[in-house]
Amino acid sequence: MSQNDFGVIELVDQDRVYPGSRFSEVRDAMFANPYQKVWGAPGEPPLPFVMPTFFDMLRALWRGRHFLTQAAERSVDARSDLRWGPDEKGFRRIVHPWGVVLTGLWEITEDSGYTGYFQKGSKALVVARYSNGGAVKRGKPRGQGIAGKLFPTTDPHHKEPLQTANFFTIDDIVGASTRYINDVDFVNAPNVTLSNDWATSPIVMTAGVVFAITDKDPTERQLHEVAELGKPRDLPTRAPRFMRLKLAPGHPRIEGEDLDSRDELLAMMFDKGDPTPRREIVFTIEVTEDGEVTGRTGFKKGTFRNWRRIGALTFDNAVVSYNGDHVLHFHHPNWRIDRNDPATRFRPAPTGSEAEKTEAM
């Protein structure tokens, strides 16, 4: 996909009908076209990378003054898990274009006081994507994030399509200089520090303004989808305000100056030149109600206290692929004035969409 080709970035008819997905279908699509058939093997090409720039935003604006708004609306309204497009090439991400897809298991092991798949005993297959907002190499500001897609089953071969629940976590939307993934706090209410990277800041500001118009808050991503997954409709929703994912203790620190973060993550699981995963990657799942986000768009700071570990996110396979960067789609949970009340949704559901029927899953 060329620099000037954004694919089908807006909401289309296929996005309006969402019967759900099969875990195996999504997983197999991610592993169908890796950039390297065997990560780190001799003769494999380097992982692709083109630094996102403000000119990408200008190209998008050149497509039409409503183009970026349509892209933001699609990210909120489209529940599709895979967006192939008519040419089967997917769409181009303007932000967070490069990433690693991971598959594994979400498991809640402690009493949480929350509903849905935050309840103790909940287990769900997960397809996640680790990505960077700008640069990918160590030593430069990187907005490191993890988006996740929960399937309410532990059977990887389930036959019936299932509706998924999506979540988003990131450290700083603009980027931070954290050297090791081991030290990153992935939170659903990330910091925004424009001064961390003035080169990326215009992209973040433009996207933030457009997203704020579309769905009120351009930074914090609420967690009600996970709290409503599998929940009886007559049971009131209770979702945590804040969630943090953090690499569990015991993982090695991968050394290397100018190390690509994708290589850093893959090295935790694979040995170079060996296609078989040798180690699991485990993130703790932590929640809290004790915190606040201060500041304005462009300069936001989250302060959190009393994190409680309630479970773990365990990944047993990973891939860097074209479909992971261009076809896999994560629905942004719509903003609610009261995160536990579907009736307070800020943005109306798209007319005629099956999503209207699945607002409270």
Automatic annotation (TrEMBL):
This is Uncharacterized protein. It comes from Methylocystis rosea. Residues 339-361 are annotated as: Disordered. One of its GO terms (molecular function) is heme binding. It comes from the Bacteria. The lineage of its organism: Bacteria, Pseudomonadati, Pseudomonadota, Alphaproteobacteria, Hyphomicrobiales. InterPro entries: Catalase_sf (IPR020835).
